[in-house]
Amino acid sequence: MENERKLEQKRVDQVITEIQSQLKQTEKEYKKAHDETSSVEKNYVQNAKVNTTEVDDRMETNAEIQQQKQLVAKNIQTEQILKEQLNTLGELEKTPYFGRIDIQDPGDDRETLYIGTASLNDDQQNFLIYDWRAPISSVYYNGTLGTVEYETPAGLQQTDLLKKRQFKINDGVIKNMFDTNETVGDEILQSVLDEHSDEYMKNIVATIQKEQNDIIRNTKSDLLLVQGVAGSGKTSAILQRIAFLLYHSRDTLNADQIVLFSPNLLFSRYISDVLPSLGEKNMRQVTLHEFFSRRLQGLNVESLFEHYESSDNLSRQQKKLSSYKKSPQFMQTVKKYAAHLPAAEICFTDVTLNGETIFSKDEIRKIYTSFPGNMTLAHRFNALKKKLSKKLDSLVAKKATSQEIQDMLENLSGEQYHELLGEQNKESFISYDEEQAYLGMKIAEKQYAVIYDALFNDFFFDDYEQYGSFLKQKLPQSFEEYSQNLEYHRITLDDCAPLLFLRDLLTDSGQNHSIAHLFIDEMQDYSLAQMIYLKHVFGAAKLTLLGDSEQALYSESKRPKELLSELSETLQARHSSLKLLNKSYRSTKQITDFMKALLPEGNSIQSFNRPGKRPLICQVSDEEASFRALYQHLKKSAKEYSSVALITKNMTKSKQLYEKLHRKLPVTLLEESDRTLPAGIAILPIYLAKGLEFDSVIVNNVSADEYPDTSKRGILYTICSRAMHELVMISIGQPSPLITQLDPDLYGVEQTLTIK
Ligand SMILES: Nc1ncnc2c1ncn2[C@@H]1O[C@H](COP(=O)(O)OP(=O)(O)OP(=O)(O)O)[C@@H](O)[C@H]1O
């Protein structure tokens, strides 16, 4: 093997030499493009400064400026492409590849291919490196030696896989090298997982596992449901899947056509480096709260976290109502209501301008009623909008010839005149009268711009009142609370999806057909009603839903198969498929074994064989002692690990602990609006830690009082599963029965602490 290693290192050196020569060439081209952009920009600035007094000169300058603006944009684009190439080559220079496969097609010679994060050709067009997403590369992830199949655009192909080799190359030097018959051998994975956590998530392309590869390369399903245990690589799989899809459909798909719903802002930031590290642009990211808030302007939307925190205090009746509002049945009721809503019950509203009514609600209703009753509501609504716009056009035309506007025209300053003229110039008009009529229209249009806007945005229809009226009829028990909230400009999370669904159905708006893929991470936190609404909004998108029902913080967990059939039916999927991920990569074997024991069906979880210390329960007698224990453990862990989190059940607890600790230790309290993870010790409630991981996790109080029964199991499991290397649980008094019923060998116990 030593000889082989030398040969491989020689090849690495040769490839790096080629990369360096391409780097030099690209740097030159980049510099040239950059200089050109600067010179065009300079020209542009100068032209924009001169010749702006005389009208004719100004027109000429305008045209020139437009041309130069386009030139600048084009140059910037070229510069951007070259910059991306430089980044890719820079990454390849450090780690040109991570895998090698030797294959033999029937009747052909043996071929050796090297696989890396991007492809590289020499000037003879020989492939020195194959992109990990190329069809042939799937053999590396999927196949064991022997006859293997792989998908290509031309159909399924077969080849003989003769050798599979893995490399760990750092800064151009082979650190490790293995021949393997496994998918991706454990040794390399082990060394990757041993590393300490980072501020940002890393790509996993060198060590993708077979089950993950099936998720990443799935192009057939319109609903792909991934259920994976904590730390099994669901989030990693989504991100590599996005990179794969962008490569696979590069002629038709771009990153702007992909939306990812992520659990919180910290998470959005945490994953933001993965796609750029693979040479791709990030997809759009949004949290459910941001999404609803943008669509419900003027209202304070209850966040998922507020929803969680208040759900403990709901009465039985309120809980029942809440779960009904989350159900597909409720969305069905909304749909039926919208389909049969009589014109007399539509909540139109007056359209006014500076106190003057432009269209009264009665007039609007009258127009609406004048359309044939057999038209669908949405068509009638659109027809109404058109009719109102036409009426507005006539109103504006009339206003343009009014005395008021004629007077204004006479008193226009030079500046106002040119501004109204805009792109036109004097020569565009055949007469002075025509020019004046044009300018008069411009003034009138400006005056009525808000009304055009109001019509465009359906402001002649009061969606909030309409939903109230719907509740009054179909769910009267809920009306009072809704109205009260509305008075304070608030809306509960449960009301968002049905209200928006009703509005969209009635007004035929709110849909975005340009999105081709919708990803939802932590899907167990979404109600079916919310899913129905998202499917309605992104009607043309294929769905990838990822979750772990054991991490449902406040709801019942569901079996994956039941969940798939429920979702397929509700979302009317034609080709749905379910993928399960049972192996947990995040935590040491000891932590995973502890976590899995917490779950009734945890036996199916496989831990990755990475040794570490057992989780520790630190039992103390009272609150004061718990602070001392926390202080000691946090201090110790912060010395040993780069990321340490003190995770609590809720924000109130996080704040209390922060108050107690921040003068003694460098701790940071994380809140909902935070976007970055601090170095050192973070204090945060579990719902903000969703999707994240830390080297060391300290749990504040796992006592029987705090976690009395199985209803709190999801929270405890989710907290513990954030830990990679160390898990310490402080308990004031007797620990939770969820813990004491476990095999005592799964954790260590520390009764008292010596205080220095
Ligand atoms: N194939 C792999 N190779 C290397 N690391 C991996 C692999 N799969 C997962 N990991 C690592 O395991 C950790 C957990 O992955 P990830 O966050 O994607 O899991 P998850 O299923 O989304 O977790 P959770 O649901 O608990 O938030 C990450 O550090 C990730 O880099």
Give the key terms.
756 residues, alpha/beta, 7-stranded mixed β-sheet, 7-stranded parallel β-sheet, 18% strand, binds adenosine-5'-triphosphate
What does this structure look like?
The chain has 756 residues and is of the alpha/beta class. Strands 1, 2, 3, 4, 5, 6 and 7 form a 7-stranded mixed beta sheet that branches. A hairpin with a 5-residue loop joins strand 3 (120-121) and strand 4. Helix 1 (2-49) packs antiparallel against helix 2, helix 5 (210-216) crosses helix 6 (234-248) and helix 14 crosses helix 17. The longest helix has 48 residues, at 2-49. It is globular and about 95 Å long. The chain starts with a helix and ends in a 6-residue tail after the last strand. The model has no long low-confidence stretch (mean pLDDT 89). The structure holds adenosine-5'-triphosphate. Adenosine-5'-triphosphate binds at residues 189, 192-193, 202, 204, 207-209, 212, 228, 230-236, 548, 585-586, 691, 693, 721.
Q: Describe the biggest sheet?
A: 7 strands, mixed
Low-confidence stretches: none
Number of helical regions: 29
Give the helix level as a range of percent: 40-55%
The tally of beta strands, per DSSP, is: 26
- What proportion strand? 15-25%
Q: Return the average pLDDT rounded to an integer.
A: 89
Indicate the overall shape. Answer: globular
Distance between the termini: 54 Å
What Rg, in angstroms, do the CA atoms define? 31 Å
Small ligands present:
adenosine-5'-triphosphate
Oligomer: single chain
